[in-house]
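User: Sorry, what's this?
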Amino acid sequence: MVKKVTEASQAVAEAVKLCRPEVIPVYPITPQTHIPERISDFVNNGEFDCEMIYVESEHSALSAALGASAGGVRSYTATASQGLALMHEILHVVSGMRLPVVMNVANRALSAPINIWNDHQDSMSARDTSWIQLYVESAQEALDTTVMAFKIAEDHKVLLPAMVCLDGFTLSHVYEPVDVPDQKSVDAWLPKFKPKFQLDPKNPTTMGPIGYPDSFMDFKKQQQDAFTASLSIIKKVNADFKKSFGRGYGNGLIEPYKLADAEYVFIGLGTVCGTARAIIDKMRKQGKNVGMLKLKSFRPFPTVDIVSALKGKKAVAIFDKAVSFGNNGPVYTEIEASFCDEKQKPLIHSFVAGLGGRDITLDHIENAFNKIMKEKQPTIQWLVE
């Protein structure tokens, strides 16, 4: 294992190289472009043997990854924002064909107005496309989770594509210390891709044919069942990774921080959790029982784990960096729904924050904690000041 101070995008590229995908179709879009650029460097200087395909759009990039995966090889790509939106049609096709493509998304706001900074609107807009969604807080977690994503997606109980989401600029362009595993260790931990089905002229197979009304719903039910199975697989892969490399992230689905005795809880995704850790430490020194539940997996949504983790808590402050227009923040609405069958639940407060890269400060999170300590009814607030 080698320790480097490196950009998070570089750390992701290192992870991709370690996982040995054979085909990588790419198209540039800010702020994910550094990932394929670094992978190209590895290929061009002979460190990494793979076929990089330079396509004409993100739609084409994912289409090529689909074809490669259907042909029986490990495939990977990356994108962001409008690029992910342009892929939307093919997102459904990849998952419907049960192809375990892995993709990093450097989260960025969607237009209009044009904005290149971070929020989670792009990946949240793709939450119903049947892709696993894992969110990361640090460069180390981005590297580790990208490696884990291949093992999760390719498990024959899962066979679903996975996107690993890292905050654009806020993380993708930030330099941090990272432990990079050696190739031999990753090879021992991540086996070669063995497709359950593949296109082969010697053994003809039909993939993605028309689904008539008497069968289409059955295929969709199989995808849902695969997500149910993935909950335990994600936990197992996280535990196995920790055993082999010494690092894990909660149980792989959620990650608590000073949560056990907390009465008031912050919930978020990605880099905002680092800001929350700092203010939690400060408020703890003041004698306030605050803590955090970091949501690592948004799809599958870990309902049981969340309800169990929040049992006995007085109130929670959910920070969403996206909004489902006409409703509320997507994390808030899903956590609220998780308690629909529970007799007791904490007061669940919604804070929409950080859209288009607007700063989420220590004061914002401290003020949110102070607010939920006082309020007797749930509140919904946009942090636009």
Summary: Residues 216-245 form the longest helix (30 residues). The chain has a mean pLDDT of 97.
